[in-house]
Every structure is written in C-alpha cells, then in structure tokens.
Amino acid sequence: MYRDARDVDGLHDLHETEKRGFSSANYAAKTVYLSVEELRRIAEVEITPATLLATFSTLHTGDNSEMANLRRKAEALDLIRKKFLLGAYTALRVSDFNHLRDVHIQGDYFRITTQKTGAVVVIPIHPVIRKMIADGFDISTPVSDQKINKHIKEVARLAGITQPVEGTKLINHRAVVGFYPKCDLITTHTARRSAATNMYKAGIPTISIMRITGHTTEKSFMKYIKITSEENAELMARNAFFMG
C-alpha cells in the first residue's frame, strides 16, 4: 500500500521501505485445533429442532412455518457438519475437500489433484467419513466455505465445545487476541489443522502428513500443527526409548 500510494497514486515521494532494517509488522494469529474427542462429539451430536431450541435462546417456534424453518436449519447444519468433517479427517484445504466427488473415491482411498499445488494426493478414508457416506451423505453436495465458516460455530456449540480458550477473532474487521468460547474460533481451516495435528499425535510420520498438507519443509509444518509441550512430552513417553 505504501509503494502503491507513491508509485500509482502519487500521494508521496518517500522511500522508507527501501531502507536497510525496515520490516513490515509480523502478526501471527492464535489458532485452535479440535482433538479427536472433540471431533467425535461434533460427529455424534444430535442436530434436531429440539436441540436447536435448547441451545439457542433466540430461536423459537410458534406455528408450522417456524417449525419447518427449524427443520431446514437442522438439515443445513447437519450438511455443514459433514463437510467440515471431510476436512478434519483428510487434512485437505477447503478448496479441495469441498470439491470431493465420488470419482475421487478409489477403494479405501481418496485420490485427488489439489487445486493450489497441482499435486496428486492419496488419503485413506477414515471410518467416520466412510460411515457418513454409507449413511447416504453425498460428498459432492455444494456448500460455500463462507457458509461453513459461519455455521460450523453453531454445530460446535451444539456439541458443547464452549470452553474459553485464547485465540484470534475478527471484531469490526480487526484481529483481536483474547479468550473466547472455542466454538467461536472454529473455521474451515481448523479442520485441516486438526487433521494434521491429530495425525501427528497418532504417530503418522511427518513426511507422510506433509505429502497431504503440501508443506515443503518440516520447519514450516511444525509451525502449522498445534501441540503443547505437555502433549509433545506424552508422545515422547510412549516411544520405546523412554519405555526402556
């Protein structure tokens, strides 16, 4: 913006950004991931007009049309839940997991060419995803990532993922770090980060996960996953070296 204001709009003739030592502000958002247990709660939570009414005080029902709206909302949230879980069990970007089709299913695997890098990735189909498909979920049903971002928070609230955690939230178009209900910090990218982190914690080799996520260095991958020092120590404790 600084350079465009000078070179395009002629608003100033300064060259401060070219000086040695200049660096732009570096901002790292505080993000969250969902554990295997939290993903299980999202997969199993009952989404019905009754649970919606019990969870969200702004909803109400008084006539048949309002009840019909609640049923449609429950169906929409169920679809968003399933779309989100596609990402949470594949580690694919939203641009990829939101465009999976039956043609991408080859036996026990998804095989897809990723849109961003053009790389071909092959991912085992997780039992949660296989059950959803067996129960009639059409993975090709279109849902915009904006709609998933908006409503996955409601699904997570229904699942009781409401504990306060530190994170970054957009407030009036500004990124504000604070403590918020965890459900309010969940986005489509949380699905991908959760998959990568849970795969890592399960002991899947880093290089295998990077083949899916597209990270080119282990350094960048380790910055991406979310794991505490305590969780890292637990992983080490299960290694044969520490078990004697």
Task: Considering the chains and any ligands shown, give keywords for the structure.
244 residues, mainly alpha, 3-stranded antiparallel beta sheet, two-stranded antiparallel ribbon, 11% strand
Characterization of this structure:
With 244 residues, the protein is mainly α. Helices cover 47% and strands 11% of the residues. The protein has 12 helices and 5 strands. The protein has helices spanning 2-7, 36-44, 49-55, 64-88, 94-97, 127-134, 145-158, 188-201, 206-213, 218-224, 229-237, 240-243; strands at 105-106, 109-113, 120-124, 164-171, 174-181. The strands form 2 sheets. The chain has a 3-stranded antiparallel beta sheet with strand order 1-2-3, with no helix packed on it. A two-stranded antiparallel sheet has the order 4-5. Strand 2 (109-113) and strand 3 (120-124) form a beta hairpin. The protein is globular, with a radius of gyration of 21 Å. 24% of the residues are buried.
The overall strand count is: 5
Main β-sheet: number of strands, strand sense, barrel status? 3 strands, antiparallel
> What's the overall geometry?
globular
Helix content: 40-55%
Q: Average pLDDT value?
A: 90
Strand order, largest beta sheet: 1-2-3
Q: How far apart are the first and last residues' alpha carbons, in Å?
A: 58 Å
| Structural class by sheet pairing and helices | mainly alpha
Helix count from the secondary structure assignment: 12
Order of helices and strands: HHHHHEEEHHEEHHHHH
